[in-house]
Amino acid sequence: MKQNLVLLLLLIVLFAACRKTPEVTITKQKWDLFENSNAVPLVATTRTAMEGVYTINAGADVFGEQLVLKWSYAIENNDTVYKLSAFGAKDVDYFLMDGKRLGDSILLSGNWRKLTQTQTGSVQLTISYSNGGRQLFSPSPIIQKDSIIARGVFGYEADAPTIPFSITYLRHLNSTPFEVLAHRAGGRTSDLLPYSENSLGMIRFASRLGATGVEIDMRYTSDGEIVLYHDNTLNLRLIQKNGLLGPIENYSYEQLNTYVKLLDGQRIPTLREALNTVVYETPLRFVWLDTKIDQPLDKVRALQQEFLQKAAAIGRQLQIVIGLPTEEAFNRLKQLQNYTTIPSLCELSPEQVREVNSRVWAPRFTLGLQTEEVEKMKAEGRRSFVWTLDEPQYVEQFVRDGKFDGILSNYASIVAYYHYAQ
Amino acid sequence: MIKNFRLLKLIAIIAGLVSVLFKSEDAVAQDTLRVQQPYLFFPYPMQNKWQVSLGFTLTGMPEDVTEEVQVKAPVFDVHAIRRISKSMYLDGRIQTQFIQSYFSAGLRWIPIVGDRISLSVGDDIAWWYGKLNAASFRTNASGWQNTPNASLGYQFNDKVLMTLKGEALLNLKYSTTIAKEIVQTQGFDFSGVAGSIILEQPLGKKSHIITGFRGQYSNFFWQTWPLFETFDRRIFYPEFIVGFVL
Amino acid sequence: MRNKQNSTMLIFLCCCIGLQSIAFAQTDSTKKAYKTENAIIVYAGGGGSFFTGKSGVPAGLNAEVENVHLIGSLRVIWHPGHLLHIGLETGSLRFYSYTIDNNGKKGTTQVDATPIFFVLSMPVNERIEVFAGTGNYFMQTKLDYQGQVKSNVRSIGWMVAASYRQPLGEHLGIGAETKWMNSTGTKDALLSLQIQLAWKFKLKK
């Protein structure tokens, strides 16, 4: 018996030793051509004309058959920064690149990642004048199949890119209206994205993932501030260790702001800060406020109104809806004055959607396509979103066979791929 | 620094195992080594034709998969061994949480029986299924798994039997269905590995208890199918095993 | 943090292997499995603890951390005369505490716990006993910064311990125990050294 316990200890230690913490490391590769002082940013017409569905010629064994290329922007330190994202289906591929013009060529440089794994690498592509540059530099580009060929190389992890990679323009993007919604502002912390979930950094990053909107989780602090945080308690899944434990509602905003850092080092943002970022720093057009609070919604409503007005004042197309995930939230909405005029999104039954006149019905994906109900909602002028859909095979089927107007996912890029590539 | 510590730990583990398993001071007479008590995991020729245990397992779900929601529901576990010959056995197991169940059957061959140490190799085929038709769920799933395994048994004295078991986890096929209209399937995949340490010993005067710890390091665990987890990386699942031999 | 924990685990492991070697090196009369009489033993201990994990003090706040605190524990174990000794343990401990000065605004944070474990134990010989337990740590944060907060959470964890006990009579024993406690959910761990009194209640066979 004495040996038993020693060996049990040994085995526990063995397992503790074997566990690896997954990590994603993005290495920026230096490309002299790209850093040339004569290389200049691309103009808007070139960027827009480049967007489309591309066939992968070289590198298909790693990245799949096709990629969707789409530009997005974010305001960083008062500068508008444009990035080219590419979305693929194989292992939920995702590329993020900068683009420049050098002479008659277009240079694309950046990194790729497989979002269901931790595999990353770098990529460098060139579109020469004769392989699309001429059309793309034209003031009114006319892009047809095979008219753009981007050739270059990619590499794994920190290795210099040397493996051939090329893509050819196939067709333009599907332009059917559809919302690609990023869960928790962009993805979960466990997805190992560059930013923590429900953070300002993630909100700015969401459109890089192909998102047209975000879902964010709201909680109250003990002194009534509304902050973005998903879990019930302060825990090491989301924050750096600081000795503060238990429900987030037990702490005041100042206590949280002083002591708590998210895993990526950011502070827990307030709802005001989050909506400010959406309106002034991103192209996002939809915000889903997931109410994880069983308290009056007056403050939420006030902020919703304020930022809808601010967005309208600067000509931004933006919808902000109060999410009703539970009966408690549903009843809280009904306590507000003129609740049927308040933009809301209801996850409950279709009857309850009609009762509060929600703009959006959002059932869980595990109930299936629900085509009949979705079409009834459309006939009533309401939209239907489904959540939270991550499995690529499911996303493909929901986009292809479903009638939903949007999908909420931790992998906005795979939703963007299947939608735009249709 | 961290890698060095891991290496040191592994060396300490191997040294400990070697010192326990192969020390020579404890030579004991042959007639006291014959295993007198019932067992299910211990790789040793059985006298009885059948041996059955009832118990449960409890798995700690990793945070990456379940996040804050840690529902620790035990799995009811029935394990049976049927002797075919002195060295060949049928090994069957049913684990169930009612909405999902796991059935496995396989062969176990015991080629080596020594004074204290014995070895078995085996291969199990398992089929699992789950059905969740409540609240916002209209889902079901099923899959096939193959688990080649090997067990090393060590008898300490006339009462305590220890088994170290290693398994390779191969997913042969796996599919989930939503509302009978959306289907996802996955083919062959080397999911991961598992290691167990099991103690079988008397409990009181007439009964016998099985206690053990199993650590699974894999990219799929059948109990978590309703979470539709998509991480393509191996995650650690610790599992505690308790059984009462009938 | 991981290095400190790793080295602590390694030291503990070596102690366990060392204990095992000591047991094996003894004469034939003591190499037989040590058998206890049918009894319930209550262990009460108190001493000091040293936090071995990462305290997670926020950067840039002039923090001062205290890793050494008092600890107390109470354990009841049933020795049935067979091999499996089982019981329960509880106690009171403070993992760590720290103070900050945020531009003149001072704050203190204390991380306390009340463990409740299911414990297995086995005697190595007449004097030495080892324990292993798993269960819950009922954690509490006490924060005093621009207001006071007491906030609780439950965390799964485990502990391992080794004790040496000298009998003072038929029922009473005194000894010392070293114990490592780990709250897995909150990634807190400490090493403690306690003086321990043990009282044996014999049971009828």
Give the radius of gyration of chain B: 20 Å
Q: Count of DSSP E strands of chain B? A: 11
The run of helices and strands of chain C is: HHEEEEEEEEE
Radius of gyration based on Cα positions of chain C: 19 Å
CATH architectural category of the largest domain in chain B? Beta Barrel
Give the % helix of chain C: 10-25%
Oligomer: heterotrimer
Main sheet record of chain C: 8 strands, antiparallel, barrel
CATH topology of chain C: Porin
Helix content of chain B: 10-25%
Largest interface: which pair?
A: A-B, 47 and 43 residues
What does this protein structure show overall?
The complex is a heterotrimer of chains A (422), B (246) and C (205). By secondary structure, chain A is of the alpha/beta class. Chain A contains 14 helices and 20 strands. Chain A has helices spanning 2-18, 32-35, 44-50, 60-63, 133-137, 200-205, 253-259, 271-281, 298-313, 327-334, 350-355, 371-379, 392-401, 412-420; strands at 40-41, 52-58, 66-76, 79-87, 93-102, 105-114, 120-127, 149-154, 163-171, 179-182, 213-220, 226-228, 233-234, 246-247, 286-291, 319-324, 344-346, 360-361, 383-386, 406-409. In chain A, the strands form 3 sheets. An 8-stranded antiparallel barrel of chain A has the order 2-3-4-5-6-7-8-9. An 8-stranded parallel barrel of chain A has the order 10-11-15-16-17-18-19-20, surrounded by 5 helices. Helix content of chain B is 10%, strand content 55%. Chain B contains 2 helices and 11 strands, in the order H-E-H-E-E-E-E-E-E-E-E-E-E. The model of chain B is unreliable at 1-5 and 18-33 (pLDDT under 50). In chain B, strands 1-2-3-4-5-6-7-9-10-11 form a 10-stranded antiparallel barrel. Chain B has 2 domains: 1-31; 36-245, Lipocalin, CATH 2.40.128.90. Chain C has a single domain, classed as Porin (Beta Barrel). Chain C is built from 2 helices and 9 strands. Chain C has helices at 2-25, 28-31, and strands at residues 39-51, 64-66, 68-79, 85-102, 105-123, 128-144, 148-167, 172-183, 188-202. Chain C has an 8-stranded antiparallel beta barrel with strand order 1-3-4-5-6-7-8-9. The termini of chain C are far apart. Chains in contact: A-B, A-C, B-C. The A-B interface holds A 1, 3-4, 6-8, 10-15, 17-19, 22, 91-92, 114, 116-118, 188, 190, 231-233, 235, 237, 363-370, 390-394, 397-398, 401, 410-411 and B 6, 9-10, 12-13, 16-17, 20, 63-64, 67-68, 132, 136-139, 156, 160, 162, 176, 178-185, 195, 197, 199, 201, 213, 215, 217, 228, 230-233, 236, 238.
